User: What shape does this take?
Amino acid sequence: MIDFTENQKKTISAGLTVLALSFVVAFGVFAAWLALKALSFASPAVVPVVTGFFLALFFKPYYLWWKRWLRNPSLTLAVMLATVLVPLGFILWYAGAVIAAQVSNLVAQGPALVKQVTVWFQTTFPNFRVLLDQLGVPYENMGEVYTKYAPSALKAGSGALKCLAGVLSALVTLIFFVFFLTSKERRGSEIVSQLTFLKESTRDFAAAQIDAFIDILVSFFQRQTVICLIEGLLYGLGFWLVGLPYGFLIGFTLGVLNLIPLFGSVVCLPVALPLAYFTSGGSLTRLLLVMGVWAAGQILDGYLITPRIQGNRTGLGYAGVIFSFFFWATVLGPVLGMLLAIPLSAFCVVLWRALKSRYIRPVV
Assistant: This one.
């Protein structure tokens, strides 16, 4: 039998501990990777459930307000849906034709607008034509390129099977929306009460983290939706006042799409800026005014709107929110990743804070 010294025993113990910990961490990482892969694979089935859940989070206060008056859950649901869907139907009925006409006209102007932008670039930057030639896209045919590919892109979702899938997805979303809306709110203590194999202190710890996570999730989506609607109105009115063609439509879309930080700006500014300069009545002044409206909206959002309404309730910060969307969209796919980015990141933040305060001693 080998007789080890005390130092050797300590070294061997430390090595075995590190090895065991490495196996535990590796297993946890593998389990998380497997779960994310399964979630990504099941994205078409999961997205309607998640969407219904988030819609229920947003409308829950409104539903509870009606329930305090009407008492009956079925009557409350009917009245709430009527007060939401009827005004929305009227808005879509009267504004839908105008919006459709504006979108159609905007798409129709695409070839000429793309060609104007290309010619301007070629004139201003002579090497731009060489770059296009290297890419195999002659600048004289940019309008034809747009005409060739844009309609096919717009018609990509018009197939019968895709329409049927969309209808079924909408029905599933509505079913889960009603389910989550009418179900009783469950706190962390109720969720972990079935985990009797855990110690009482561990159950209390888990319940506190679940409550914190739910509070962050509900607060973020309700408040962020209000912020995006306010931004949409501000951008829409601003673009309209400075004379941008289709200004209100583009500005309101920009604000609403900013539910994903910066996504609205990335999508809408490349449309707004060429319209401001190259269309009828366009000028450098109008281009600068459009940029000024956008910059003013960013300043108001950063220093007034978001701090007043949202604050830093997720614990992520602005840069953290942006990183979360890009990271989870890469891991889970664009749709599911965008929907789950904030909840998953908020959960990670809540869990890390709890573990840090519970198990890591502060350095004095």
User: Anything to note?
Assistant: The CA atoms of residues 232 and 255 lie 4 Å apart. The radius of gyration is 27 Å. Residues 39-184 form one domain. The first helix runs from residue 6 to 41.
